[in-house]
Design goal:
- This protein is about 30% helix and about 25% strand.
- The protein contains twelve helices and 20 strands.
- A hairpin with a 4-residue loop joins β12 and β13.
- α3 crosses α7.
């Protein structure tokens, strides 16, 4: 580990998932590393706050246990994970219906009987799609044709009716877009990860994930509240004018800082999402299940305290509801009305705890979507993050790992 103020082999700017993964791999290889972070805690977008005794994540987030990078880097038992129901509730004009994985919850098999969710042909196509994505090697899914998710569903024999009833409302919340224009490669890999893994939340909030990654680094490896103003020929300089000398610099920040520090890097557009956190006197659902809406008045909603009771003080329920775009006058009122309809309860007595808008929630991943791109920008300059791979925890960690490999290659050369 490098001593702050002294020259080092590698300076990593940003202590989000990508930066932490990069630093960890470099340190494991015996390279001197310094990590600086502008915020007061590690995690970047993956943060949790305490608001009046409630745990509030920076927007609604879930943790997938099947990602290879996650299994490689984290001791899952230490996160005290609490699972979501393996399925989703879908609200339409006729009420709510359930889509579940009957291999995990055999009791939900009647929900898939012909006529409930879809007809026999759609159910057969859905079973074939799930079987292929779950069992085929990931490398084969990665090299499928560069089409959109909608085109991939059509090619799999899924009818437009089932796409609109199930896939579009559900995947809108996964990819933060409404038209299913996300790359089919990304869809197949994400669908595979959901079939093979479990969607969870850590007992201490989603921010426990980057904290666990940082805990594996040496003491004082990360300097917080150290914003960088720009890169220099010798490394970087902080906004206070302090020099951070380093042979190589890895920019692992959010897209706004990447554009400032490395303007030559081409960035995809990012999706904006807003999450409303409401406090209810009791859970309107009483199960840890995601609820989506075919009318797409919201992306998804769930009772976080049904998933992790510690998200809310005793005697309260915490409900998180996400919508595309930013908050606006009157929007929360419309969301509350939609929740009254979807949950079937009176929400007028619910208190609005807080609102979280994430400007750079997820990169757009339209075809042709490269699943990984080099992190080299120029001699001694690198960039990593989900925009260099896939918009996911796996993508961010994998990009950080790739940056470390490329830095090591250049150092040894």
């Amino acid at each position: 580990m490098a001593v702050f103020g002294e020259p080092t082999d590698v300076l990593v700017i940003g202590a989000g998932l990508a930066g932490l993964a990069c630093a960890r791999d470099l340190l494991a290889a015996g390279v001197g590393v310094r990590v600086v972070e502008a915020g007061d805690e590690v995690g970047g977008r993956m943060r949790s706050d305490r608001v009046d005794g409630f745990v509030v994540d920076r927007g609604f987030q879930v943790f997938n246990t099947s990602y290879p990078q996650v299994r490689r880097r984290l001791a899952l038992k230490d996160l005290r994970l609490r699972p979501f129901t393996p399925g989703v509730l879908v609200h339409d004009d006729s009420g709510r219906f359930r889509f579940s994985d009957p291999t995990r919850r055999p009791g939900t098999l009647p929900d898939l009987l012909p006529g409930r969710l879809a007809g026999p042909r759609d159910l057969a196509a859905l079973a074939l799609l799930c079987g292929r994505d779950m069992l085929l090697p990931a490398r084969l899914l990665k090299w499928r044709a560069g089409t959109t998710t909608r085109a991939a569903l059509s090619a799999a024999g899924i009818s437009d009716a089932l796409v609109e009833r199930l896939f579009r409302p559900f995947l809108s919340g996964v990819f933060l877009e409404e038209g299913l224009e996300t790359s089919a490669r990304m869809f197949h890999l994400v669908w595979r990860s959901m079939l093979r893994g479990t969607l969870c939340l850590p007992g201490e909030g989603i921010g426990a994930v980057p904290r666990a990654l940082a805990a594996a680094l040496p003491e004082k490896a990360v300097e917080l509240e150290c914003p960088v103003a720009g890169l220099t020929d010798e490394g970087a300089a902080t906004v206070e004018g302090r020099e951070l000398p380093a042979r190589h610099v890895v920019v692992a920040t959010g897209p706004g800082s990447v554009a400032s520090l490395l303007p030559e890097v081409e960035l995809p557009p990012y999706r904006v999402v807003t999450t409303y956190f409401h406090v209810a006197p009791a859970s309107p659902l009483d199960e840890p299940t995601l609820l989506v809406d075919t009318r797409r008045r919201f992306l998804n909603t769930c009772v976080l305290s049904d998933v992790v009771p510690g998200y809310a003080p005793a005697g309260h329920a915490l409900v998180a509801t996400s919508v595309l775009g930013r908050d606006a006058a009157g929007r929360e009122r419309g969301v509350r009305a939609a929740l009254t309809d979807a949950y079937g309860v009176d929400t007028t007595g619910w208190d609005l705890l807080t609102v979280r808008t994430v400007e750079d929630a997820l990169p757009a991943m339209e075809p042709p979507q490269p699943l990984s791109r080099t992190t080299r920008v120029a001699t001694g300059k690198y960039v990593c993050g989900d925009h260099r791979a896939t918009g996911s925890v796996q993508g961010a960690l994998a990009s950080g790992a790739r940056a470390a490999r490329e830095v090591l290659h250049d150092l040894r050369r």
